[in-house]
Amino acid sequence: MMRSTSSFMARLLEVARDVETTLEGLLSDEARSGEIARPSRLMKALRHAALGGGKRLRPFLTVEVARLLGQDAPGALRTGCAVELLHCYSLVHDDLPSMDDDDLRRGRPTVHKAFDDATAILAGDALQTLAFEILADPATDPDPAIRADLVLRLARASGLGGMVGGQMLDLAAEGRYGEVRADQAGIRRLQAMKTGAILAFSVEAGAVLARAEGPEFANLSAYGQALGAAFQIADDILDREASAEVMGKRTGKDQQKGKATLVDLLGMEEARRECARLVEQADSAVAPFGDKAEILRQAVRFVVERET
To answer: How many C-beta atoms surround the C-beta of residue 203 within 10 A?
Structure first.
């Protein structure tokens, strides 16, 4: 499989820097219009959770899809930052002792370790609500219908029928509630909800901002779904093969907890073949865009080749 190019990596880093700068502004201590105050300890926890780490893949997808379709306005970056804040909230809550009970995230103490459980819960809550505030702000797009569409899509992708529901299925698949271990269809559904839905939204958000419709939107949506599925399988492979030092977090935990993964069900080699199949599926979805979609082709390869 062709590896991601240096030009792709340079663009990924460029967007990541833009995201970091924008997030720093959004997470400043200064209270905004309509706010009474921003508690210092809470803001420190938010910055600990959201700044200084991560590949920023989700905002990258939003920015690059919008760019592909001729939309290079600041709203794409703001929308990408909203997705990133939503993603960071999910990590803060996933790391809690009642969930995955992790001590490290991106090579640093998790929020509940650096602060405490209560602060971590509130930090996650604040990151989530700020994400929706950004999408609803006219600064993201002047058209209220576009903003409403983004809010609705992110709510569905992140809520009970998406990421949160997927996390519930994941906990059940560990055997916490006496339920039967998931079969292949159940695992694919769980992963599409827990991980895939937000990645798919990241792609669709760029299309929404660019006013894409019909086959154009459908093709990009299919690309996002394939990329999301490939991401989760690659993540499961990394959990087995990478070291905690490289990953910046505890590895091997899924197997220890008895979590249901396609790596367990299919075996390592078949899981790798499934990743390759999904890359081809993503490529086919963006084929109608021709050479303009090369950066999206590179993105799905990066997802399955990454080492962290």
So the answer is: 28
Chain centroid to Cα 14, Å, comes to: 18
Query: Facing residues of 108 across strands?
Result: 105
pLDDT in tens, the chain (308 residues): 455 688 999 999 999 999 999 999 999 999 999 999 999 999 999 999 999 978 999 999 999 999 999 999 899 999 999 999 999 999 999 999 999 999 999 889 999 999 999 999 999 999 999 999 999 999 999 999 999 999 999 999 999 999 999 999 999 988 888 876 788 999 999 999 999 999 999 999 999 999 999 999 999 999 999 999 999 999 999 988 866 665 555 655 666 666 779 999 999 999 999 999 999 999 999 999 999 999 999 999 999 998 77
Cα angle, residue 208 at apex, residues 294 and 13 outer, rounded to 5°: 45
pTM over 0.90: yes
For the chain, domains (ranges, CATH) are: 6-305 (1.10.600.10)
CA–CA separation, 206 and 63 (whole Å): 6
